[in-house]
Amino acid sequence: MKTSIATVSISGSLPEKLDAIAKAGFDGIEIFEQDFIAHDGPPREVGAMIRERGLEITLFQPFRDFEGLPGDLRRKAFDRAERKFDLMQELGTDLVLVCSSVHPASLGGIDRAADDFAELGERAGARGLRVGFEALAWGRHIHDHRDAWEVVRRADHRSVGLILDSFHSLARKIDSDTIRSIPGDRIFFVQLADAPLIEMDLLYWSRHFRNMPGEGDLDVTGFMRAVAATGYAGPASLEIFNDQFRGGSPLTVARDGYRSLIALADDVRRAEPETSVDLPDFPARAEVRGVSFVEFATRGEEQAQLEALLSSLGFTRRGRHIAKRLTLWQQGDIRIVLNAETTGHAGAAFNARGTSVCDLGISVGDASGALARATALGAEPFHQPLGPGELDIPAIRGLRGSVLHFLDTASGLDDVWQVEFETEAAATVDAGLNAIDHIAQTMNYDEMLSWSLFWTTLLAMDKAPMVDVIDPDGLVRSQALAASDGALRLTLNGAESHRTLAGGFLVENLGAAVQHIAFATDDIFATAKALRGLGFDPLPIPANYYDDLAARFDLAPDLLDSLRGANILYDEDAAGAFFQLYSRPFHAGLFLEIVERRGGYAGYGAPNAPFRIAAQKRLMRPKGMPAA
Ligand SMILES: O=C(O)c1ccc(O)c(O)c1
Ligand SMILES: [Mg+2]
């Protein structure tokens, strides 16, 4: 499968766009005319510049307002086309996209449009060029791929074909199966884009809110399945108009695009095994078994504080690494590794940011399969020199330079705790924490799409609807991702203002990282009681909160008293109930949480966030600062 992306999807100058696109692994580009015009250099040079980077020009676009014009306007449209044909020949591309007309003088009429395209095809064909017709969702007379196809069919010229764009078809809610009856060799080009479902004007939605397949809410997979079923064998090309991407890092956006396109093609071939998608084989999304470990880079005084906090939560130190300054803290199935190395990845992480989560270990069905999939999607493998007796655990780079490890049982990687660690004393305390409920990664708002794509293309995880977390000083957007059985839950929290708790963490911590870890208990009141005995200092929750709870929910008085007495927050929905107990914030605004889920409650207590955040901020406010 030939991969391609429109230059309009990436920020920067034309050479910057091309560098990023080539580096991300694409085979070709759709050259957006504006990007060519803005560049200072003749078309032949631009063509060479593109080919030098190993890219081909899959499409020249757009050519607007062509079909259905009367008299002189029609003649002028053909003159314009001839000029663009000259340009295409100099650039070195044979296909132009003609998008359906929005011209006020365009007359309409399928046969008139077909005649126009037959003549354009004749002129293009004489030069060895081809013309593709795309229905814009807001086209004046043609705004449905079925009508565009009818124009192409009636034009009946080998140099005239159809161009499909998932956005235009899906935005108009046209059934993708209508594509299955179009002959694949009459489809000249396929553009792909997703978008969040928002009610708004189609043109505005398209020009500002498109995103990578898998990042939005449209069924781009269903669309591409239908395309594949036709036998179409041309490029799959991303055409993403997005305000955020226009200002983003060219390489990050290009890499996200590549990941999204390869994952999409892989989904299509798995869903349509009878079709041939020309793509090297790699494993399906890894099945998640759970969180194997969370590793902090920490040293000195900060390490002592973190150890004290873990002890007060019922964790015990259970192992020491055979060669490195690593200790293993455990409770139930939860493993926290404290890495005090002064060199290597963790050493560098601590030097840059102080105590922070530098590594995550995920238990999967097949660890090397997970790595193979990650690399096929363009992830960067991570290697560190192995000491004697150490296991080679497959790993890639994750959020902001952190490292993500894959462990499994089949290849013995789950035994790393026995192989690489000397066991210390058995647990003498236990507060009933048995698993990691969720891990919260804080990032800038404009990193959220990228990281949610990262997780959902790599592992079998689904996105929940985006939730607003109300911080007293600004809004934080929260995207939850979960494996279907809850074996891994992540919340990606995107901050826009540095004044929010999440935004402040980004400043203090020099960028995105895990800000909190939530542990699961089966009995939060028993856990709270055990923690009191261990000297755990919970985040104090004001009485007003409990008065409001009494008004909002029908809670038994003794339950309300127990919640109040233990500083436990409460939420419920139709499926069940949720209990939350928080630690006080420590270094840079990191914190720990304890939760109990009852019934099928699948959320994260977002309604409690404003009160929890206000309570955390009261404790974090620098001494002597005014309250406002
Ligand atoms: O928004 C536009 O004008 C526009 C132009 C060309 C395309 O291929 C498209 O999908 C949209
Ligand atoms: Mg398009």
From TrEMBL:
Transmembrane segments: none annotated. Residues 435-584 form the VOC domain. It comes from the Bacteria. Its EC number is 4.2.1.118. Mg(2+) binds at residues 438, 516, 593. Coiled coil: none annotated. It is an enzyme of class 4 (lyase). A divalent metal cation binds at residues 134, 165, 191, 239. The keyword Cell division does not apply. Its cofactor is a divalent metal cation. Keywords: Dioxygenase, Lyase, Metal-binding, Oxidoreductase, Pyruvate. InterPro entries: 4OHPhenylPyrv_dOase_N, DSD, Glyas_Bleomycin-R_OHBP_Dase, Glyas_Fos-R_dOase_dom, IolE/XylAMocC-like, VOC_core, Xyl_isomerase-like_sf, Xyl_isomerase-like_TIM-brl. It catalyses: 3-dehydroshikimate = 3,4-dihydroxybenzoate + H2O. The keyword Oxidoreductase applies. GO terms for molecular function: 3-dehydroshikimate dehydratase activity; dioxygenase activity; metal ion binding. Catalyzes the conversion of 3-dehydroshikimate to protocatechuate (3,4-dihydroxybenzoate), a common intermediate of quinate and shikimate degradation pathways. Belongs to the bacterial two-domain DSD family. This is 3-dehydroshikimate dehydratase. It comes from Citreimonas salinaria.
